Amino acid sequence: MLDEANTDKEVVTNRTILQELREYRQEIKAEFAKTNNRLNEAENRIEGNERRLQDMEEALTGVLRMQEHLQEKLTDQECRSRRENVRKYGIPEGAEGSAKAMIPFIEQILRENLDIPATTDMQIERAHRALGRQPPPEAKPRSNLVKFQSYRMKEEVIWLAWQKKGFTLDNHKISLDHDYAPEILNKRKEYAEARRILKENKIRFQTLYPARLRGHYDDG
Hints:
Blueprint: H1 2-81, E1 85-89, H2 102-114, E2 124-129, E3 144-148, H3 151-163, E4 167-169, E5 172-178, H4 182-189, H5 192-200, E6 205-208, E7 212-215
Antiparallel strand pairs: 1-3, 1-5, 2-3, 4-5, 6-7
């Protein structure tokens, strides 16, 4: 009798354990299913976010290209508006006397140093110092902006100055150059060190518009 009772208890116990294992397995399956659902949802959200991010990157790239194109057009228009301008560097602050005397002062030093006849109409429309506060005495003077009425006259003045490689005024080296837009000047500053090395090594070079450097060697 005891053996039968023990056997029955073992059967019941085994059935209980088996039932608990089945229930536990079902719970595990249910948890796995929930986890898979959450993973699928997360993957769908990530995929959607990646698509939106890609769309945003493409749109941003398009905007940047358009901005670059518009900036190039704006720079081109600004350069065209400066075609008749000349920048003069090195003239000491106050050498012109007053703002009203700037045009006669510029005409005089150009005629005297570039051998421009008095009969030649310089056609200077206006002339003034670069905007900004007057620098301290030990600093470089501000440049002078000169606007000519004629592009040809401006080019002739530039050519004469370049032929003489500038001139001096009261022991100050004076140089002339085109009036470039800030974007062009910034690009040219990027190879200032290269120009310095070329000068030190006495290698002839040219700075071509808008911002190109051409070196000359013995063979061309």
